[in-house]
Input
Amino acid sequence: MDQLLQFVFSGLTVGAVYALVALGFTLIYNASDVINFAQGEFVMLGGMVTVFAYAAGVPLPLAALLAVAVAVATGLALHRFAIEPARGANAVTLIIITIGASILIRGIAQIVFDKQFHRFPSFSGEDPIAVLGASILPQSLWVLGGAAIIVALLWLFMEKTLLGKAVRATAANRLAARLVGIDTALVLALAFGVSGAIGALAGILVTPITLTSVTVGTLLALKGFAAAMLGGIGNPVGAVAGGLALGLLEALAAGFISSTYKDAVAFVVIIAVLFVLPQGLFGKRAVERV
Amino acid sequence: MQRRQFFAGMAAAAMLAFAAPGHAQAPIRIGSVLSVTGPASFLGDPEARTLRLYIDRINQAGGVLGRRLELVLYDDGGDANRARTFATRLVEDDRVIAVVGGTTTGTSMAMIPVFEEAKIPFISLAGGIEIIEPVKPFTFKTPHTDKMACEKIFDDLRKRGLTRVGLISGTGGFGASMRNQCLRVAGEFGIQIVADERYGPGDTDMTPQLTRMRNVPGGVQAVINADFGQGPAIVTRNFAQLNMGVPLYQSHGVASRSFIELAGAAAEGVRLPAAALLVAEQLPDNDPQKRVVMAYKQLYESTQNQPVSTFGGHAYDGLMILVEAIKRANSTDGTRIRDAIRATRGFVGTGGVVNMSATDHMGLDLSAFRMIEIRNGTWKLID
Output
């Protein structure tokens, strides 16, 4: 029992990060049909900028804020200088552009920062909390709570604000949205900016646990993409569910089956799910909406 | 056009003629291919700095056999293909008499056939045991092997009376190789590996593996982590989070300041085998290595403005073994130098006391590794 609980804690913490990355994918996919493979680099920027600002003497909250600002600026620049000039191109071309952008961002980060691993202190101490025989780090609660708040805020924004409705309208039908006077270019820029912010926040929350370096983005982008596919690409609820499910799958596979094959187990399950439900777990609703 | 070339040639010949009396003979060329940039740069950079530093020093002191040393150094960026290309260039174009270098096991293995064919002595600075096992006529190495790390840890466990051990290793080259070696030699020390867990190169949470290990029937009395980089830091933190309550051993792969910084308070009490260089000041004065490691450390730190690392020490050892062999051979012939390297006895380097033989092209024994414990955020020599 305590063993299972420990695996669940581990899986949810890792899964929350996958969920936030998947959410970033979803936002941009909805606004533009582009899978933004530079999404992992936002997470990297969040962690690395905070690390270096904090090491330079900036207080942690301010350093985190700076990191979010840098990631948002990077997201907007990615849209303005790479996606916007190629707006006539098809989705595949745009996806390749984002892969190029991710390599560029990583390369610049390697020059500006360094190639070593770094971390900064946890927000509220390092002493683990014992729960029913299992233990969880206070920072894990920050990750889970932070992810929940980000998802809630995003939901409020999408459902309750005019701008959010404009994003949803663009996602549903770009041509129709433009016909009713929605500035779809602005919506797209907004999606890149918000994705940057979400990625950076994920990076800031998780760095005290997982450490960070300029290369962490690549793997996170792959895992986040897998999570988004599992949940049903384009569906925010699916992104969160897919991320948590992927994290849990990995932890349970490592704990109960074999740590050597844990990634394989997770991906086999994903393939099996997509075989039965090609739209992903929550994909059907997205189809109905269109 | 032809005339201009002719005059240029004359001018060059004249300059050579004037320069020649200072150096009666051409310099002795020593080659090196290191991973100065790329993912292994934290190994290759201090190695390159060390070679340049000491070749300058040797030349200031009059060179070797009355001739200057000239270093021909290429950067392979960690790419084995490029390393092999540079190895060919060293042999065919630069005509070096010996090579020190090969930062990683991968680049070293790619270069070995080139040097073996040309009969040029090659001293590798990489850890993998396959470089010298089976023995190749012209190939040597200076760093300790992962097999020795396993043996040193098992030796320490035996002294503490612990036999039931959990092994957790990264799936990368270093972790996988050390895992195999540990599994192979465990029996000789009466150690039982009761759990054998693994994790991937980018994994960020190893609590599932450690939880599984904790719940092994009969329990584990100690845990060994075979890996380098960020993995061991995360394992160490997870280990503390789960309050495992048994000793944790890391490998020589984490013997750098950044491990203590990343693992934080969780690193307290962690033990690892490492070279004497890491605890140079703590060595007793009668330790045979004390003088050598202190001298290297002081010179490196005062000229390079960065802390000394054991990796640069491997380059120091390789260069010095080669230079002494050239002196003893009194020749720049590859086979004679090889014979002299093979006859190295009692050479005191930063990695240990080296005794080469026809069957041992590394020449280190277990005494080369020191058991170190992390206490109060720093290294403490315990054995």
